[in-house]
Design a protein that fits this description.
By secondary structure, the chain is of the alpha/beta class. It has three domains: 3-100 and 199-262, Adenylosuccinate Synthetase, subunit A, domain 1 (Adenylosuccinate Synthetase, Chain A, domain 1, 3-Layer(aba) Sandwich), CATH 3.40.440; 104-197, Adenylosuccinate Synthetase, subunit A, domain 2 (Orthogonal Bundle); 265-425, Adenylosuccinate Synthetase, Chain A, domain 3 (Alpha-Beta Complex), CATH 3.90.170. It has helices at residues 16-24, 76-88, 108-121, 133-142, 154-174, 182-196, 203-212, 247-251, 284-292, 311-321, 360-364, 391-404, and strands spanning 3-8, 29-32, 41-45, 48-52, 65-68, 73-74, 97-100, 104-105, 200-201, 217-224, 260-266, 269-271, 305-307, 309-310, 325-329, 339-348, 351-353, 366-374, 408-412, 420-422. A hairpin with a 7-residue loop joins strand 19 (408-412) and strand 20. The two termini are 28 Å apart. The structure holds inosinic acid. Inosinic acid is lined by residues 11-13, 38-40, 126-129, 131, 133-134, 222-223, 227, 238-239, 272-273.
Length: 430
């Protein structure tokens, strides 16, 4: 049975939620395996817009089971607010949502610590989403973390939580922030644990049953591969493994459970927050992408930085994450630009490189090597067949496909569910 991973190959916001929404209709289970409420997955159904931060995008399909795996850091307050919001909109998740008892919990002090650490970094701040992601993963790895299952066991929770609040309060005071009341944090955590209890499960065991029972699984990545803690633009990254390689540790399933890896890329590039972005365009072309593509963060509302397609970045994800096929998003946004550029390599200190560097100063010295293409003016939103795209758009897409070295199986030409060119059924673009 197919088990597909969908993950973003740039700096996030590639439109993964869209693709997962389409593929969820053909799946039995949708699983999140990393990240937390820093994600912002937008799905438009009819006139309704849903922005999901922590729930898997499969929640909008009635027959689909949604799993939050052990690799996610769960903010239970955000999670239950999303569940409530969906219930008000007549989407009932009873029996359709499982949260791993092994997933780590984002507690109020993680969010305050996120802000305090950013303030202490000063000019070198990372531009985090302030959702407590880094501090929650840090606690996991220093083994001070608390897990979802602990919220249901007061005797396990109490001593660790009180110890953690006391030590975090010292750092908050140093950053000039109000310390927390330990007893209040404990009471709130126990209270939210009671509300979360109906969803808590041993998802490792459940996922094994589902996999061996032949269910169709879909793993939904959050953020993008260049934000990967190991292989992204460190330290300007998030704190998890954002590619397909995060699935094993984040779910408890073996790598051989994965039958297909689908990488999602936008037809141009965006980035939210600080950090290297060699193909950034701060001129009229970048403005065009930002306004036509409505490039504002779904989680923080921040304006996204925009720029040209970077094949070095996409190839890095393809090579290291075993990508089988790619989905190209938001091609329609480029309509109206006279000229398009694609970065095929970098020049770093006079040397050509076709893979990304590791160091911050090397990133700063990257000069993109561009190929230039003629643009098109036509509106693409009603096109459903590759052959009906304007000639210039076909040339552009074929070039991206060849640069990435994997076949495209989907192209999106608009935000609504139907605005897709499904290439698997039409042969590839090449
Ligand atoms: P954190 O994940 O909140 O720690 O933020 C670290 C970096 O990742 C910042 O530059 C954020 O803007 C970025 N980031 C985190 N989540 C997302 C996302 O879902 N989309 C795009 N960027 C993100």
């Amino acid at each position: 049975m197919p088990a597909t991973v969908v993950f973003g190959m740039q700096w996030g916001d590639e439109g993964k939620g869209r693709i997962v929404d389409v593929l969820a209709a053909e799946s039995d289970v949708v699983v999140r395996y990393q990240g937390g409420a820093n994600a912002g997955h937008t799905v438009i159904v009819g006139d309704e817009k849903y922005v999901l931060h922590i729930l898997p995008s499969g929640v909008l399909h009635p027959g689909v089971l949604n799993v939050i795996g052990n690799g996610v850091v769960v903010d239970p307050w955000v999670l239950l607010e999303e569940v409530e919001d969906l219930r008000r909109r007549n989407v009932d998740l009873t029996g359709r949502l499982l949260v791993s008892d092994r997933a780590h919990v984002v507690l109020p002090y993680h969010k305050l610590m996120d802000r305090a650490l950013e303030a202490l970094r000063g000019d070198a701040s990372l531009g985090t989403t302030s959702r407590g992601i880094g501090p929650a993963y840090a606690d996991k790895y220093t083994r001070d973390g608390l897990r979802v299952g602990d919220l249901l066991r007061p005797d396990d929770l109490r001593p660790s939580l009180l110890r953690n609040v006391a030590s975090r309060n010292e750092i908050l005071r140093r950053a000039g922030m109000e310390p927390l009341d330990p007893q209040q944090v404990l009471d709130d955590a126990l209270g939210i644990g009671k509300r979360l209890a109906p969803f808590v499960a041993d998802t490792v065991a459940r996922l094994h049953e589902l996999w061996t029972g032949g269910r169709r699984l879909l793993f939904e990545g959050a953020q993008g591969f260049m934000l990967d803690v190991d292989l992204g633009t460190y330290p300007f990254v998030t704190s998890s493994s954002t590619g397909s390689n995060g699935v094993g540790p984040g779910t408890g399933l073996p790598w051989r459970a994965i039958s297909k890896v689908l990488g999602v890329v936008k037809a141009y590039t965006t980035r939210v927050g600080s950090g290297p972005f060699p193909t950034e365009d701060v001129g009229p072309a970048g403005e065009h992408m930002g306004s036509r593509g409505r490039e504002f963060g779904a989680t923080t509302g921040r304006k996204r930085r925009c720029g040209w397609f970077d094949a070095v970045v996409a190839r890095h994800a393809v090579r290291t994450q075993g990508v089988d096929a790619a989905a190209l998003m938001k091609l329609d946004v480029l309509s109206g630009l006279d000229q398009l550029k694609v970065c095929t390599a970098y020049e770093i200190d006079g040397r050509k490189a076709d893979a990304p560097p590791a160091g911050v100063s090397q990133w700063r010295n990257c000069r993109p090597v561009y190929e230039t293409f003629k643009g098109w003016r036509e509106d693409l939103s009603e096109i459903r067949r590759f052959d009906d795209l304007p000639r210039e758009a076909r040339t552009y897409v074929r070039f991206l496909e060849a640069q990435m070295g994997v076949p495209l199986d989907t192209i999106s030409v608009g935000a609504e569910r139907a605005r897709l060119i499904r290439l698997e059924t039409q042969g590839t673009a090449r």
